Amino acid sequence: MGEGGCNYNPDETTQELLDLIYAKDSPVKEIVCGHLHFSWDGSLTENTHQHVSPAIGKTVGIITVKGS
User: Which of 23, 34, 48, 65 is buried most deeply by CB count within 10 Å?
Assistant: First the structure.
């Protein structure tokens, strides 16, 4: 995002969420989202994992969340 990326400048609400996700003491542990062009699964930060599911075709993903 931003310079050198897709040239998207987040509004105040989106920036607040990004700051929370990227904070060293972030309570965010998992981000689950969809994308039209690709899927991806991996670490976004040391503390936060991201799963991107393809939003194409008739594929359905099932995610089970466990923990406290």
Answer: 48
C-alpha angle with apex 4: 53 to 28, nearest 5 degrees?
Answer: 40
Instruction: Give this prediction's pTM.
Output: 0.66
Q: How many CA atoms lie within 13 A of 5 on its CB side?
A: 7
The answer to whether the CB of 41 falls within 8 A of the CB of 52 is yes
What the block records as the tokens of 6 is 């897709």
Q: What is the rounded distance in angstroms from the CA atom of residue 55 to the CA atom of residue 46?
A: 26
**pLDDT tens column, 1-33:** 555 566 778 899 999 999 999 999 999 999 988
